[in-house]
């Protein structure tokens, strides 16, 4: 059967992608940020997954205000890096895993989560920047990403957005779906976006180190309590774009120390997660960058 063995959490600032694409990673401003991902790039090589289930948000790139799915799963064979106004990033196309994606869609919808099925989608910085941070520079002419990716887009741009609680429960359903897939596949689940940032309005530039780190502590140690954090707390404490953090709860909910339901509490208690890496850095453009790698025991 397929199994989720690890989760990766990272912010997705577009300027990080630009710094990599323009060869600026060793400049004074960027160097400390990229140093925080040295461990992660090696870890990716040492723990190469068969498939990455990548939870991200589209920034009105693939989905305009014409149509806004709350949760959308990519079932395509391939995804092209999007043009967000400065031309597409010079990174490889993303290969999908239509068979596993379709299986997860079937299972998760049968578990009463309404997903939108996406057979064609360009992927913006929300997806490509986390891949670049974890996999390093890739030349689209000769390189590819290490494995297929299932993009899972969450609406955190246009209100109403899903609650952290719903995202956490969805993560449990995704794990159940993965574990009911026949093939032996090593799957990683990524939660991306965040941490504190606000890009517009009177509080533009807001960063909240203390809140971010307390949220990380709780997300790791007591994810069920963290999932109960109301929207207004994210917006007040972490800024209007801090709400992207609810996506991390999807990945956290898919880890094996989280019970699917009351009947497997014991099994879940027997499991635990290891923090393999934790990193936090300010500034990166207007955003506080947070990063975690958790492994299932
Ligand atoms: C920035 C951060 C984001 O999450 C985003 O989607 C766009 C810009 C920034 O900090 O510049
Ligand atoms: Fe964003």
From TrEMBL:
Family annotation (InterPro entries): PCA_45_Dioxygenase_B, Xdiol_dOase_suB
Gene Ontology molecular functions: dioxygenase activity
Entries under Pfam families matching the protein: LigB
Domain of life assignment: Bacteria
Keywords, in A-Z order: Dioxygenase, Oxidoreductase
Domain Extradiol ring-cleavage dioxygenase class III enzyme subunit B: 8-289
Annotated protein name in UniProt: Class III extradiol dioxygenase subunit beta
Organism: Rhodoferax potami
Phylogenetic classification of the source organism: Bacteria, Pseudomonadati, Pseudomonadota, Betaproteobacteria, Burkholderiales
């Amino acid at each position: 059967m397929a199994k989720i063995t690890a989760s990766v959490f990272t912010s997705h600032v577009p300027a990080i992608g630009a710094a990599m694409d323009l060869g600026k990673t060793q400049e004074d401003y960027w160097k400390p940020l990229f140093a925080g991902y040295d461990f992660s790039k090696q870890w990716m090589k040492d723990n190469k997954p068969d498939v990455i289930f990548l939870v991200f948000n589209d920034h009105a790139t693939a989905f305009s205000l014409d149509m806004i799915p709350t949760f959308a799963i990519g079932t395509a064979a391939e995804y092209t890096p999007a043009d967000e106004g400065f031309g597409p990033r010079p990174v490889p196309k993303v290969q999908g895993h239509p068979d596993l994606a379709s299986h997860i869609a079937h299972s998760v919808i049968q578990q009463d989560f309404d997903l939108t099925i996406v057979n064609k989608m360009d992927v913006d910085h929300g997806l490509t920047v986390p891949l670049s941070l974890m996999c390093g520079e890739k030349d689209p002419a000769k390189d590819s990403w290490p494995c297929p990716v299932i993009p899972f887009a969450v609406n955190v741009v246009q209100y109403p957005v899903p609650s952290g609680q719903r995202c956490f429960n969805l993560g449990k359903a995704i794990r159940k779906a993965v574990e009911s897939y026949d093939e032996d596949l090593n799957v990683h689940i990524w939660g991306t976006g965040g941490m504190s940032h606000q890009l517009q309005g009177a509080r533009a530039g807001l960063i909240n180190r203390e809140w971010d780190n307390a949220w990380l502590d709780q997300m790791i140690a007591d994810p069920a309590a963290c999932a109960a954090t109301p929207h207004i707390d994210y917006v007040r404490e972490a800024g209007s774009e801090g709400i992207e953090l609810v996506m991390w709860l999807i990945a956290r909910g898919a880890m094996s120390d989280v019970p699917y339901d009351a009947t497997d509490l014991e099994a879940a208690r027997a499991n635990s997660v290891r923090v393999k890496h934790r990193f936090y850095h300010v500034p990166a453009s207007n955003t506080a960058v947070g990063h975690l790698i958790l492994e299932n025991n």
